[in-house]
Amino acid sequence: MDRTKAEAVLEAVLFAMGDSVEVSRLAEVIEEDVGTTGEILDAMAARYAREDRGIMLTRLDSAVQLCTKAEMYEYLIKVAKAPRKMALTETVLETLSIIAYKQPVTRLEVERIRGVSCDHAINRLLEYDLIMELGRLDAPGRPLLFGTTEQFLRSFGVSSLEELPELNPVQIEEFKQQAEAEVQLQLDV
Q: End-to-end distance of the chain based on CA atoms, in angstroms?
């Protein structure tokens, strides 16, 4: 299949799927290897950006998705319903950051780090599709393991977890001391 035809096929598949598709699956469709398919996708992404189009290709780990550019939002909502805004409180964001950096992680591990119950925050994150259940820990009680989703990557504008900012060891120690102080205050009350 020539490159022009391959691009057209990839564009059609991504448009029709609406969601992300693994690059390996796309490679099977156009009967190319993953490396060549990645190069074709990179060329498509560059062309969409260069031609000032309303769509773009987004990479999410080993998958890609055809989506609307953020600057088109105001025009899109004139036709479609505005999506429900996520209300991420400080508590929910703290819980999400712990899950993002420590995944796979159990609810108990998150609560041990935060020092308080995280039921509401975890339920909210599941509702917003920012985290998902990854399975169960092979331990007594078989607690659920949580990790982030592709929606998390999309929402925070990163392609993979490797793009998350590095945590400063000094800040980690400060956070640990603050958490221990908060726990001590709660015990004193």
A: 71
Q: What is the DSSP pairing of strand 63-68 with strand 55-60?
A: antiparallel
The tens digit of pLDDT for each residue in 153-167 reads: 888 888 888 888 887
pLDDT of residue 85: 67
Running DSSP on this structure, what letter comes out for residue 161? G
The domain 3-76: what is its CATH number? 1.10.10.10
- Residue extent(s) of CATH 1.10.10.10 domains in the chain: 3-76, 90-188
Q: What's the pLDDT tens digit per position in 71-85?
A: 888 887 777 766 666
Give the pLDDT band (50/70/90) at residue 112: confident
Q: Which CATH fold would you assign to the domain 90-188?
A: Arc Repressor Mutant, subunit A (1.10.10)
Query: Pick the residue with more confidence: 171 or 144?
Result: 144
What percentage of the chain's residues is helix, strand, coil (to nearest 5)?
55, 15, 30
* DSSP collapsed to 3 states, 55-112: EEEEEECCEEEEEECHHHHHHHCCCCCCCCCCCCCHHHHHHHHHHHHHCCEEHHHHHH
The answer, as to whether pTM is greater than 0.85, is no
Select from 57, 18, 13 the least CA-distant residue to 38: 57
Enter the tokens of residue 40: 């074709």
Give phi and psi for 84, each to the nearest 5: -65, 130
